[in-house]
Amino acid sequence: MLDLGTSFVASVARDPDALALVDGDLRLTYRQWYARISNVVAALNRAGLKPGDHLVSILQNRWEAATLHWASQFAGIVITPINWRAKADELDFCLEDSEARGVVFEEVSQAAVAGSKLAGGLLCIAVGTETPEGAHSFSAMTEGDAPEAEPRVGADAWSIMLYTSGTTSKPKGVPRRHRAERAAGIAHVAQNLYRQGEVTLGVMPLYHTMGVRSLIAMSVIGGAFVCLPRYDTKKALASIAAEKVTNLYLVPTLYHDLVHDPVFAQTDVSSVRKLGFAGAAMTDGLLKKLDAAFHPELFVNHYGSSEIYTFTIDQKAIRKPGSAGRAGINQMIRVVKLDARTPDDVAAPGEEGEIIALLAGDEAFEGYWRRPEADAKSLRDGWYFTGDTGMIDADGDLFVTGRMDDMIITGGENVFPAEIESALSLHPAVSEVAVVGLPDEKWGKVVTAFIKKSAPVTAEELDQHCRTSGLANFKRPRRFVFVQDIPKSPVGKLLRRFLVSGDYVAEPESQPRRQGAA
């Protein structure tokens, strides 16, 4: 397997004059981009960074972030990107945990760096027009006439360390090698049927596995990565039309915002022929709306994680809504019993259990960064226990039903939110929905649906919809709460814990509506 630096050099040799990178008015071919990357590699070397050093970046999806990513691959530096919204204490945690040698920031993240206790003692690189005292200018690092960069490490070297979201504990570092990253990029090309010269919208953050995969995949096929520094629906639509974007790879929340924006109807999106989504389940209602809006040649549900990029793929997502399909080309999966001790405690077809994935796959990580307790919990007998729940149907297709932590035990029955959310999403007055379990004296937890409306609707009407939808009686929500917005993370993941803790804004004069048990 090639290291990523050599892989990029091969791409330059194949497609030197192909469009590689777009950011506003900036347009670079592979040859031009390689020259800038080479300048940054030389500058990082002059700054004293060595192969194996961690470099934390706290950047939006701008051309500088993409350039830094590739320069790090050539230099053998472990790029360690984090959310550009991170606060000073969150930045300090990552700097200390990774033993970073430097940090790269921009105006939007400068306050976090200024408030950091550790950043002042590290190499600081500023992206943008203003360079604070003591920091290096990234712009200056891209200038000059350095020799073409040559890869300094092999395929077994560390490439990147992503941090998990840390929804229930401190974030965990997920280090990944060059060979695993490139294998994931090639799998992404194959499983999405990308062709030479594809154009993708680079909006998923480069601190997230989906964003990194889009970046690598485009390089493999001489494709173009169109930067969108932060998600804005109207700017996304303008970029799709102007750059003739051919494929989209987004989380469901961003698709929802895209097709529900009034500008969508006036935008030419005919160039988009392939849709892919990951990061969360997509409701049946949104699947149907996207299929009608884009008429895609390919509609891929990609189920994976930062730890192992691909678990399963369904290339015909609309065919069987909710299905995550079958194992990807580099993977094997199983569903084991919820209390499984070993990978051999396999659940029966149709039985809900925990999803596990083989660690021998080419895309897999090898363990968390200095977190033996996390390894002990998740890595067993050569398998990765994902913490996700699901079941395999009679056809052999996987259905992901939620997280182990999201499971609602109500009256002794196990209930998972995804099925209920999909059923409610098909009601025409439901814009978005999230289901959680709230404490209840009688039932232990009571199934509660939080609804963002697109039209007037009552709890009684939604309850009747659930009754006729095929949901088992014990799965029906007993409470409905109408809210102004459903809380989500910066990459569009549903934050159920906010709903459980009451951290949401209810609609005016809206109170939880409780339904009868019948």
TrEMBL record:
InterPro entries: AMP-bd_C, AMP-bd_C_sf, AMP-binding_CS, AMP-dep_synth/lig_dom, ANL_N_sf, ATP-dep_AMP-bd_enzyme. Residues 10-369 form the AMP-dependent synthetase/ligase domain. It comes from the Bacteria. Keywords: Ligase. PANTHER family: LONG-CHAIN-FATTY-ACID--COA LIGASE, NONRIBOSOMAL PEPTIDE SYNTHASE PES1 (EUROFUNG)-RELATED. Residues 419-493 form the AMP-binding enzyme C-terminal domain. GO terms for molecular function: acid-thiol ligase activity. This is 4-chlorobenzoate--CoA ligase.
